[in-house]
Design goal:
about 150 residues; alpha+beta; Alpha-D-Glucose-1,6-Bisphosphate, Chain A, domain 4; seven-stranded antiparallel beta sheet; about 30% helix; about 35% strand; globular
């Protein structure tokens, strides 16, 4: 069974603007609601902590995979790793991919998160459900972010 989350949104901002919102770690932190320790670098771990109300106890950790300017930004992480008492490090990760396509002066942003089928069965569906909901909200957040800033 191929479990993946797929979202698509048309943004009224040029690709260069959306790319910056995704890959500048300060901007990413603003709309995604994380405080990151430093820039995204392919092959490196990105660390920080979540600033979303109610989730401030959660550490952010992702491994940046690809950064193809204005086309593809991707990272792997442990989905819905929200219990500080659990060590998720031995679990498989999911792959988060942001793909950008120009359209009529704006940008079509595609989000895919795949690999849920490898997540331990006891938390697979909850992780999928929570992240599916979370990405719906994040698509609105980035839309608002690029609309309100240049």
């Amino acid at each position: 069974m191929n479990m993946s989350i797929e979202k698509r949104i048309e943004l009224k901002a040029p690709v260069s603007r959306v790319w910056r919102a995704l890959t500048d770690y300060n901007e990413f932190g603003e709309w995604f609601r994380v405080k990151l320790d430093g820039p995204f670098v392919p092959g490196q771990v990105s660390r920080g902590h979540v600033t979303y109300p109610g989730y401030e106890h959660i550490k952010w950790e992702a491994i940046v995979q690809q950064m193809e300017p204005e086309r593809l930004f991707s990272f792997t992480w442990h989905p819905y790793a929200v219990d500080p008492a659990i060590d998720y490090s031995s679990e498989p990760t999911t792959l988060v991919e942001f793909r950008l396509e120009p359209k009529d002066g704006g940008t079509v942003l595609f989000l895919t998160e795949s690999g849920f089928d490898a997540i331990p069965k006891d938390r697979r569906f909850e992780a999928f459900r929570m992240n599916d909901r979370g990405w719906t909200e994040q698509m609105t957040n980035i839309e608002r972010h690029v609309a309100n800033s240049s």
